[in-house]
Amino acid sequence: MLALASLSGLGQTQEPSTDKITVTATRASNNVMDIGSNISWLDDESLRLIEQQHINQALVRIPGGWISRGNGQEHLTAIRSPVLTGSGGCGAFFIAQDGISLRAPGFCNVNQLFDANTEQASSIEVLRGPASTMYGSNAEHGVINVLTPNPFDTAQSSLSLSIGPHDYSRGMFSLSKNSELHGFLLYGNVTKDGGYLHDSGFEQQKINLIHQYQDGKWQVKNVLAATNINQETAGFISGFEVYKDSAIKRQNPNPEAFRDSQSMRIYSQISYVENDSTSLTITPYVRWTDMQFLQHFVPWQPLEENSQASVGAQLQFQKDYGDLMWLSGFDVDYSNGKLTETQTEDFSPTLPAGIHYDYKVNASVYSPFAQLQWSATRLLSLSAGIRYERTKYDYNNNLSAGSACALGIENCRFTRPEDQIVDYHQWSYQINANYALSNNKRLYAQYSTGYRAPQATELFRLQAGQTVAELDAENVDSVELGLRGQAQAFFYDVTVFSMQKDNFIFQDTDRQNISNGETSHRGIELALSYQWQHFYASANGTFAKHRYDSNLRLSQTNIQDNEIDTAPQHMGSLQLGWRSDSGEFIELEWVHQGNYYLDPENSAEYRGHNLLNLRTGWALNERLDISARVTNLTDEDYAERADFGFGSYRYFVGEPRAVYVSVGYRY
């Protein structure tokens, strides 16, 4: 069922969590109880209930993760990590649709989740920690995989309309047509938001077309996904705890800021299965994105325009020998990326008007991988995997090399490297075990490595006279131990992890891109759920420490052993709800965000916050339903994200109490 389908499904008791099938953890279908690592998910039923206005409202239910909400649909991601920004902050997460990265390798964008139709996904699956053996570069801190629906499971068409404050409205639709061999599904949504802050708001459109064919040993899934967003972006407001000041909190210091972004992906998943023991899948794809935005987060506010066009394929072979299962494959991606940065007016001699950067990069990635799973005994299964990846960047500068400033100007902010070719060769490894303490209780352990090749902007958009960025790929070593099980209606999953990150890429106090940083990430995550008749409770929590393990030159003072900024030690959420067989439901949600430091020196801090959300709905008849959501029920003054930059506290303001109402019809 799609995210806009009838609420009547919410009245049904969910299947036990131990029956959940995941495709993200191993790139193949497996029962959650048989996985030797962590895995979290939001199914279509949960997504329908949440009816998000922003992706962070959904992923707040995932342990170990925080999607920090910016203005409009902008966001930053944290999974077993701090919220990562600036140099080294982009590309630490593999964000995908049906296993295909939303952006080309080397051309990440921190906001790229708005390229996926998460509102109408069949599920969203999240792996926490490194998963480069399965997914390659960028699967360093985690994986978010948005899964599209199966047309054969979507028997009805539907329409819905949602309205809310500040001229918010969203229409959603799905059209379904199936035969014995073919399934067709067209679905999408159109959103308009006038914005809580002055001179803000966005309009967004998402559309997906799926054709699926299944006949005997063959199955083909063809997908077209396209998105567009036009956003008037509000920037930070500055001043200590100004998010509490009703006279200031709605101000927009950057009314001229905007973001326009379009994306499209077309791919085919072609699978052949022989006797349920041998399968071959090939997934060719094309990918295209185009974006322009005003960099409101720096005072001189240049305009950035970037685009990418890619073609690639994923080849995967799986063979089951009984106690042994062999999985191997080969991923290839060819991309062409372009970037220009232009400033309309002089800010200073070292920040001049004109074109700062204008370059293109041809990138190629070749990556074979293999994994062997062995059922060593009736109770113990073991798995080992390995991947090799070669990444090559061919950079061409369309402007004069060197300083972008006038002759004689020292300490120019912008430096253009000469044409060059850069390549990286990386190996990653994974070993895990799953031991059955009983039929419904599993102990699992995993050692895994992750890596992130430097992104094109870190290599070629240089500053302050740096002409060559000799950057190493980031590497993460991770160990985790977990216990997962179900006792009647109670499901639990508890994971302890320790991660060490080397070659962390950052921009030092001289504005040079370097890669000699070391950080550590340790903590415990838990996910709990309980069902009793029509009542249910679910909770997730994270307790973690993220530290600088070396004296990175992010500050004039020694920051070794300091906590990493924008990295809460504790966060989580709790949901209490009731659902009837006829479709009525009500849920109260508590969201907790712990305190965190705002700078590497640990001298500025945000105190954290607690929010309550209320959701309820009714099925008026078999075709018509209505629901309502009240966000920030207690009207808390809070910041979606706090920051300290350019000598001032800065905040993205959290929105006050708001009521959203939706009406859905299916036919």
Automatic annotation (TrEMBL):
Residues 200-633 form the TonB-dependent receptor-like beta-barrel domain. InterPro entries: Beta-barrel_TonB (IPR000531), Beta-barrel_TonB_sf (IPR036942), Plug_dom (IPR012910), Plug_dom_sf (IPR037066), TonB-dep_rcpt-like (IPR039426). It is found in: Cell outer membrane. Its main location: membrane. PROSITE patterns: TONB_DEPENDENT_REC_3. Residues 9-20 have a biased composition (Polar residues). Pfam families: Plug, TonB_dep_Rec_b-barrel. It is a multi-pass membrane protein. GO terms for cellular component: cell outer membrane. Keywords: Cell outer membrane, Ion transport, Iron, Iron transport, Membrane, Receptor, TonB box, Transmembrane, Transmembrane beta strand, Transport. Residues 32-143 form the TonB-dependent receptor plug domain. Residues 1-20 are annotated as: Disordered. The keyword Ion transport applies. One of its GO terms (biological process) is iron ion transport. PANTHER family: FERRICHROME IRON RECEPTOR-RELATED, TONB-DEPENDENT OUTER MEMBRANE RECEPTOR. Belongs to the TonB-dependent receptor family. This is TonB-dependent receptor. It comes from Paraglaciecola arctica BSs20135.
